[in-house]
Write a structure and sequence with these properties.
This protein has about 250 residues and is an alpha/beta fold. The chain has five helices and 16 strands. α3 runs parallel beside α4.
């Protein structure tokens, strides 16, 4: 299986190699259309659809983020026939299970997919007790520094997400939202986790998409169930950062 995970594109659409499954963990829309659902929807229907369908992927999974107002009303029809849009729901592809959640903690300014703590915890508690890949826009608090803001500053990951999933059987967690979070795979509560944001805090491309490759799907399933064998999966950044199109 070849899998690519990326988030926080903010309108920058990188060239990506062939893969079996592409996972996008939110904040895909351009910053120039911030909070403009109509403009974002038009961009998703046009530029984004052209890009994502140009990629050589067997399956494409999209999860929204807090800047994606254009997805508050659901997935555009132009994407619905070729993109699996997950909003607190799951799917099985190639024998692997995926769950996507766009929701994030609510700060002082109310952006898309924010929720109050009690409601957010209930949302995250919908995540199944066992899932191979969790695609979450938010990073869990205290998890491999994936929610670390700035250089050595505070962890602003979601405490609700951490509480909801700490005892669940999850093979991999792909998250974003906090662009300066740790982009190296680590272990947290028996789960592999990595921040896969593409842009930095200035919303400019700064990191490589994350790539997992394993020659044998059966062995990949075994590795997902054994954290001691994490490094037997060929997972790395560095598959090329040239953009196909950006706004």
């Amino acid at each position: 299986m070849k899998l690519i995970a990326v988030s926080d594109l903010h309108g920058h659409l990188p060239n990506l190699p062939e893969c079996d499954i592409l996972c996008i963990a939110g904040d895909v829309t351009p910053d120039c259309y911030r909070m403009d659902a109509k403009k974002q929807r038009e961009w998703l229907d046009g530029v984004f659809a052209d890009w994502i369908f140009s990629l050589d992927c067997y399956a494409r999974i999209l999860v929204a983020g807090n800047h994606d107002y254009g997805l508050l009303s659901g997935c555009p029809s132009s994407l619905s026939k070729g993109v699996v849009y997950l909003e607190n729901e799951g799917v099985e592809i190639m024998g692997f299970t995926f769950w996507g959640t766009p929701n994030v903690p609510k700060p002082t300014n109310n952006l898309a997919f924010y929720q109050e703590p009690e409601e957010l915890l209930k949302t995250y508690q919908k995540i199944p007790d066992k899932v191979d890949f969790l695609i979450a826009h938010a990073a869990p608090f205290g998890a491999n520094n994936c929610g670390l803001l700035g250089n050595g500053m505070a962890d602003i990951g979601s405490r609700e997400l951490a509480e909801a999933i700490k005892d669940k059987d999850i093979g991999y967690i792909f998250c974003g939202h906090i662009h300066t979070g740790n982009h190296n795979v680590g272990l947290w509560e028996g789960k592999r986790i990595v921040n896969v944001s593409y842009c930095n805090e200035s919303k400019e491309p700064a990191y490589q998409p994350f790539y997992i490759y394993h020659r044998n799907d059966y062995t990949m399933r075994q590795v997902l169930r054994n954290t001691k064998e994490m490094m037997q999966v060929d997972s790395f950044h560095g598959i090329g950062s040239e953009e196909q199109e950006s706004v």
